[in-house]
Write a structure and sequence with these properties.
Shape: elongated
Order of helices and strands: EEHHEEHHHEEEHEH
CATH superfamily of the largest domain: VSR Endonuclease
Number of helices: 7
Helix content: 40-55%
Strand order of the largest sheet: 5-6-7-8
Distance between the termini: 89 Å
CATH architecture of the largest domain: 3-Layer(aba) Sandwich
Radius of gyration: 34 Å
CATH topology of the largest domain: Endonuclease, Chain A
Number of strands: 8
Largest sheet: 4 strands, mixed
Structural class: alpha+beta
Strand content: 5-15%
Length: 219
């Protein structure tokens, strides 16, 4: 840092020596009131303002427009933000990335234990689905159509209050309604309580337990 003297107000001010362009005046007001501009400066500004601008065609409304930002003349596609946000390309990209986002959020809500159990069911049974709303608008985590069984993989948020906004009472009420709707549709609900993290031994034990129950019912 160094100290310079403003040629307009004669006051000293600090200047950053690392700046590309050194400050001459202490403020914008001093710079704007420094006196009449030179003819060369006025001519340069005039030529810049009179420079011919490219006329572009809006992709949405097909009207002509001039891009206000010179550095975007080669990339500007729409005459206004309204045209940009109502264009078919924006709507298509919104649907595309919206579906991707929803899919990623949905997969992130499924625990690794549940996903592994679902894969084991797919290997052992013929008709296995997951998270389809076939019970009067309600879904089940894993649906085994071979035996008409709806598996509910309940994590710890079904039994414990996790956050301040988390309503355990509401979760339990929803679980009761879901079980009733599953029974109404002719399926048997089967609840698996998962209170821990990813554990292959736990999943395998629950799967073997599930198969033994099915064998007892079948025979």
């Amino acid at each position: 840092m160094s100290r310079n003297r403003c040629p307009k107000c004669k006051e000293f001010f600090e200047v950053d020596n690392n700046r590309k362009y050194k400050k001459i005046f202490c403020s914008r007001s001093c710079s704007n009131s420094r006196g009449p501009r030179s003819k060369e400066f006025k001519k340069a500004v005039s030529l810049k303002l009179k420079k011919p601008r490219n006329i572009l065609i809006c992709e949405n409304c097909k009207g002509n427009f001039i891009c206000k930002k010179t550095h975007m003349e080669t990339t500007a596609r729409f005459c206004s933000t309204k045209c940009a946000f109502t264009s078919d390309s924006y709507k298509a990209s919104g649907r595309k990335y919206g579906l991707i986002s929803a899919s990623l959020q949905f997969e992130s809500r499924r625990s690794k234990n549940e996903i592994l159990f679902h894969k084991l069911c797919q290997k052992y049974f013929n008709n296995v689905r997951h998270n389809e709303r076939i019970f009067n608008g309600w879904d089940a985590d894993i649906i085994i159509d071979d035996y008409k069984i709806a598996i509910l993989w309940n994590g710890k948020w079904h039994y414990k209050k996790i956050t301040h906004k988390h309503s355990l009472k509401q979760v339990k009420n929803r679980d009761k309604i879901k079980i009733k709707e599953i029974i109404k549709c002719g399926y048997t609900p089967y609840v698996i309580k998962d209170m821990g993290k990813f554990n292959i031994k736990f999943v395998n034990a629950e799967f073997n337990k599930f198969k033994n129950i099915l064998n007892k019912v079948r025979y």
